[in-house]
Amino acid sequence: MNQERKTVAVLGAGTMGSGIATVMARAGHSTLLFDVNEANLQRGIGTVHGFFDNSVKKGKLTTDQAEAAKAALHGTTDLTELSRSDVVVEAVFEDLALKKDLFGQLDDIVPESTLFHTNTSTLSVTGIASGSRIPGRVVGTHYCNPAPLMKLVEVADGRHTADWAHKATIEFLHSLGKTSVVTQDRPGFIVNRFLIPWENSCILALEAGLGTKESIDAAVLGALGHPMGPFRLLDIVGMDIHQQVAMRLYEQLRDPRFFPPPMVDRMVAAGDLGRKTGRGFYEYDDTRLFGS
Amino acid sequence: MTPSTTDTQSPLDLATFGLLGLGTMGAGIAQVLAASGRTVIALEKDEARLAAGVAAVTAALDGGIRRGKVTEDEKAEILSRIRGTTAVGDLADVDAVLETVSEDLEVKTSLLTEVAAVVADDTPILTNTSALSVTAIAAALPHPERCAGLHFFNPAPAMRTVEVIHALQSDERLIDRLEALVDSLADKIAVRVKDRPGFLVNALLLPYLNDVIQELDDGLATAEDIDVALKLGLGYRSGPLEMLDMIGLDVHLNATEAAYAATLDSRYAAPPLLRQMVAAGHLGAKSGSGFRTGPSQTS
Question: Would B161 disulfide with which of A48, A222, A284, B176, CB 3.0-4.6 Å?
Answer without folding.
Answer: A222
